[in-house]
Amino acid sequence: MSGVQPSESRASHAGSQRGDPDKTTWPTGPVGDFPGTTTELIVDRLAESKQSLKEILEKASIEDPEAFKRAVEEAEQQQPTSGKNKWSSTAMMLLTKELDSDLVNGLTSEQVLKKREEFGMNVLEKEHKEPIWKIFLLQYTSPVVLLLLAAAVVSLGFQEWVEGIAILIIVTLNASLATYMEKSAGDALAKLAAMAAPRCKVIRDGKKTDIDAKECVPGDIVLIGTGDQVPADMRLFEASEILANEALLTGESEEVRKTLTVDDPDEPFAKNMCFASTSVTNGNGKGIVCTTGMQTQVGIIAQHLKAESGSKLTPLQQALNKLGGIIGVMSICVLIVVVLVAVFTNYRDPAHPSQNWILGIVLVAVGFAVSSIPEGLPMVVTICLSLGCRDMVQRKAQVRKLPAVETLGSCSVICSDKTGTLTEGKMTATTLVTTSRCSEGPVQQFSFYPTKGFDPNGGCFRQTDLTKEATDGIVECYDMGKFQEYDGVVTDYGNPYNKDLYAQKVRTTLMAGFLNSHDTELVKDSSGKWFTTGNMSEGAIVVAAAKGRIGPAVNEENPHDKYPRDKDLEVPFNSSRKMMATIHKLPKPGEFEGMKLSESGSFTHVCILKGAPDRVLKHVKYMPMEDTANNYNTIDWKRSIEPDELQAVMRINQELSKGALRVLALTIRPLSSEDMAQLQGLDKADDRLEYLLGKRSAEAKTMTLLGLVGSLDPPRTGVKEAIETARTAGVRVIMITGDQKTTAAAIAKQIGLLRDYETEEEYAILCEKLHKEDGSHLDDGDLDEITAKVNVFSRAQPEDKIAIVNSLKRCGEVASMTGDGVNDAPALKAANIGVAMGIAGTDVAKGASDMVLLDDNFVTIVAAVEEGRKIYGNIQKFVSFLLGTNIGEIIYLTVAIAAQMPLPLEALQILFLNLMSDGCPAVAISREPAEADNMRVPPRPKNAPIMTRDWWLFGIMPHVIGEAIAVIASLMLGLYVTTGYIFAKDISNSCSTFTMPQNPNDRDPLDPRECRKKGCTKATFRYYCECYEYTVDDGWVTHLDFFNPQKGEMQQVLRAYKGWEDGGLLSPSAPANPNAEQLPSVITEAYAAAGCSEAVAGEVTCGTETYRVDEDSNWWIQGDHPEVDKKNHVITYFDCSNYGARRGRTIAFITAVFTEMLRAYTVRSWDWFFMVFNRNPWMHLACSISATLTIMVTIIPGLNTEIFKVVPVEWWHYLMGIGWAFFNFIWDEVLPKPVYRRVLARRKALARERESVGAKV
Asked: Considering only CA atoms, which of 957, 955, 931 is closest in space to residue 1175?
């Protein structure tokens, strides 16, 4: 059935969705948490076992700050972190020598192996990993298992060895299976967690290598940068604008600036060290590893801290708790009523006529408790969630936190980044715009062609020159394998041999872009395929520069050697600046790549600034100009850029943005030696940027605009379809990007995120509009009004993401948020589902997320939502299956007790039914594929009960009624054809009994006179039974059981008569010696052969034995010493009465098993069963196992009669039992499903009618 019920629309639950979902309260305590608690514990154990030690410490610092503070202080005493500590204060040369390392080449491979053997792996161990034996014992803590153990103890106390031992065996088998499944699920999640393990860059054997962080050893040279998680405690020897978040250790959220020297040696957490598990939020640098693993500061803190971890309740756990409360209250009430009825009516089971009365009531109570609690639910939920994680990985989504699997099913809003998620993230520069004062105007536009991925084989051409004939010629040259030989077709302005002034402008601009993108490289692999390493936006510039013959990939001359970069003065890019600056030394003062910077040659360096046009253009004052006389370009220092010139640049920026291009502006500022001295005195990047932009001088603007680079990042394949799928599913998609509004809106139009009638002005917004004039965010009401409508947020900052997601949550949405940078971590944590990028994402972002996209693809998010809905839908199905069958058991057991009929099932049979028979189909249901309408219905409300009103009305209650009718009818008919009666009293009255005193210790018969001396109990014995049965060949027959005085034991005569002897054979007037005409010859012959005397004073003598005569029937009875079965307190003999009752119960047992087995086929979908019959082969296997186990239980000697108290039955009895099961099957198909489909169609029609009325209004 569909995982989301259409009747439970989002609108109808708007009120319940508002507010803090974590403050929702459900019934608690032993009643409220009855079955849900076990599921929650298993889910929590699995989730907690995959939490990193860092996450555990973070939680501990919040929940018990005092204990955390003490642990930090103890760790500080054990291993100081201040500037006075060994690692911080030792001179770098001595430290390097002590660690046997090399700052340039790092460790050798041999050194790494030796150090790993000495120091071990760099892992932060949690307190312990729960051993399998503890997982096994934890299975015995659930309420239902404790109840069963109590029943086993009671049974053993009454010396009911078979029942007691059987319960223990079944409980142990279930615990073993649950342990195996939990262990398997845990191992699977551990493998998934390993996929997201942090990595780091180290220098080994003189080469930069990317390794798993756990492979770090002391002495390793580690490279760190923005977004990295520090792998170990390390001493820095290179640091460029490094900011670290050390809140994990200090509790302070403010970022710490790292330096190479320590100002205050007494201050904890020395500034020249970075500590394991902290994160780098800005800058880059190098350090030498000092300590690893549990010897790091975070490891030592963990050793002093006994942290208890937990997780907040998810929608599934809330729903299960609520359901648990309902079931718990219901089961306790019914149990009390049933036990009272059994006590006051003196209920006795004819199948166990001599069973201890108290034990009988206890077993009845256990049977009801077992039937009312879905024992298989915890195990199946665990299996479903763990298998769901595996399925997610197959769809390229790695779940870090187990409950996120089902939370995805309620996701109503997806907040997605643009670059790399909605788009391919493979930037290709297509357009170059140069600026200068010339006859053509202030801007000149060029195109890069061809653009085949990262292949540098191409050129830079005037856009007006690229006619169809020209492009065909270029492609022909490309296909012929010619490398950058296009001048014969059309002028290539990227060719360095072209001395045209336009070509010089192109190369100057491309050179500036290449030098500024120093961390990105263009390389070719062994197969000849080109790719870039580093930033994707810079990758496009580097490839474009290569088409201008710039860069080591296409030219022997390396521009980085020609224009050395001063890395200490660099201003790194970050999301708030939206720009970055690099400073390079000029090989020839006053000249930069063919452009004259000044006649005097006073400029020794040049600053290249690259960034967003709307941020950069406001700082531009100058632009180049052509010196046609000397055939070079220069900067027009005499005249500032004119408003119309700047307007022309901004206009073309708008045009490129509307074409969905990401535009970057390239500017330069020549620097003198005095400027360099000023910059070298500024430690902070922001201060240097202010100086470069002229904010620290009278000259407010200083930059010279070279041009613009427009890069195309095409939408990912399938994104448009995925957005439409999400929209159809009622899931809203929001784009939150740092790009310009025009670019973002253009991409949104291309991928269908903005529909044709949704304008940029109305549905797209700059995030600065979310702020007041003082910079703070708008009031909640105003912000909520914007987020309810706008689908494209541009120029977003990390704090804007947090504000947006919090606004959506206030409006009752379940929001997912994507992110890749370190600054995205707070937003990922704030979202209901934080989604990090697996490829482009930083370790910090991954650590804050609930799910990681292994391919960084938006399509994967929608696929994960679909998978989450499928999983939750399957959970609903098997919960409905288990509840329907269990409540059905309660109903037919209650009816049987109230009607004074024998119980349809005994306690062990119910246990077999719920754990063995139901378990396999329930697991198979968890593997059902998604429904056809899975993504055509709205997301479920996050606070909705797991079983909605529709599930109760159309899914559970009809089956409950049908199952009760089927099993009771099968029991009645089964009892009637096997005993001739239906009610327990009539069946019991078919036998005559007498009582005899017994010793309570050894259960041996006692002389009545001894009772007063020793104390005794009374046991009941049968001495004559007259039973009826219907047979296929003879019709009704009568069976007799009688005491044979010749043998001194009971004897049975099967089919003593054909037909039904009305009034019976027992008569008070019958003589002590039975009438030969009344009884079969075997009985009369037995009495005659015994040679018995006439009855004297109520006794007869047969040889040496003396027997008593029953006062009512005159039938002879055993003497004072009958053979007694100490187990059952009866003669070791099945009389026809209890045997017939067991046969009738066996038929009902067959009906119950097949009813529940067939229910697994009808609960799968609201469609007819044959439409989905073969879509899940696991279902056929599961039901085959259940059917086989049932048949085996009824036919295997010993297993049937001694353990499960069933007996072999005739072939047509099987057909009768299965026939009633099919009655319930047809009931489930014919009654509720068509009614529900009609109700659903009516609701849809009413919804369409309301929409049309609203549209008219």
From this structure: 931
Q: Locate all alpha helices (DSSP H) within 695-740, ordered by sequence.
A: 719-728
Those residues with Cβ within 8 angstroms of residue 889's Cβ, 6 or more apart along the chain or in another chain: 371, 372, 905, 910, 913, 914, 963, 1152
Return the closest-CA partner of residue 464 out of 444, 438, 450, 441.
Answer: 444
Nearest-angstrom CA–CA distance, 830 and 838: 19
516 contacts 508 by C-beta, under 8 angstroms: no
C-alpha 720/C-alpha 113 separation (Å) is 50
**464 secondary structure, DSSP code:** G
List 233, 349, 417, 1228, catalytic entry = 417
Identity of residue 752: G
Q: How far apart are CA 62 and CA 201, in angstroms?
A: 32
Q: Can you list the domains of the chain with their CATH numbers?
A: 26-310 (2.70.150.10), 318-386+896-940+959-979+1146-1238 (1.20.1110.10), 391-423+715-867 (3.40.50.1000), 428-712 (3.40.1110.10), 1005-1123 (no CATH)
Q: What is the DSSP letter of 939?
A: P
Q: State the angle between helix axes of 957-979 and 1211-1230 in degrees (0 to 180), rounded to the nearest 10.
A: 160
DSSP 750-798: HTTSS-TT--HHHHEEEGGGGB-TTSPBPPHHHHHHHHTT--EEES--H
Q: Give the mean pLDDT of 196-218.
A: 87
Phi-psi region of 578 (alpha: psi -120 to 50; beta: other; left: phi over 0): left
Q: Residue 1096: how many CB atoms within 10 A of its CB?
A: 9
Question: What CA–CA distances, in Å, run from 19 to 75, 278, 308, 469?
Answer: 40, 33, 28, 64
Query: 836, 828 in Cβ contact below 8 A?
Result: yes
Tell me, yes or no, if 100 is annotated catalytic. no
Which two tokens mark 846? 């991954």
Tokens of 40: 């929650």
Residue type, 55: E
Full DSSP string of 271-282:
TTEE-TT-EEEE
0.85 cut: is pTM over it? no
More confident residue, 325 or 96: 96
> Hey, which bits of 328-440 come out as E strands?
397-399, 413-416, 428-435
* Residue range 18-57, pLDDT digits in tens: 333 333 333 333 333 333 344 444 444 444 444 555 565 6
Q: 450: cis peptide before it, omega within 30°?
A: yes
d(CA 719, CA 612): 26
The Cα–Cα gap between 685 and 283 comes to: 9
First vs last Cα of the chain: how many Å apart?
36
Rounded CA separation 1218/1147 (Å): 9
Please state, in angstroms and rounded to a whole number, the distance separating the CA atoms of residues 363 and 365. 5
Rounded mean pLDDT of 557-585?
A: 90
| Alpha carbon separation from 303 to 270, 275, 291, 650 (Å, rounded) | 21, 16, 15, 59
Cα(842)–Cα(836) distance, rounded to whole angstroms? Answer: 8
Compute the distance between CA of residue 676 and CA of residue 255 in angstroms, rounded to an integer: 28
Q: Give the span between the Cα atoms of 686 and 579, in whole angstroms.
A: 11
Encode pLDDT of 414-460 as tens digits. Answer: 999 888 788 887 889 999 999 999 888 899 999 999 988 899 999 99
Does an H or E element contain 77, and which? helix 65-78
Q: Which residues 6+ apart lie within 8 Å of 623 measured at CB? A: 435, 436, 437, 442, 635, 636, 641, 645, 704, 705
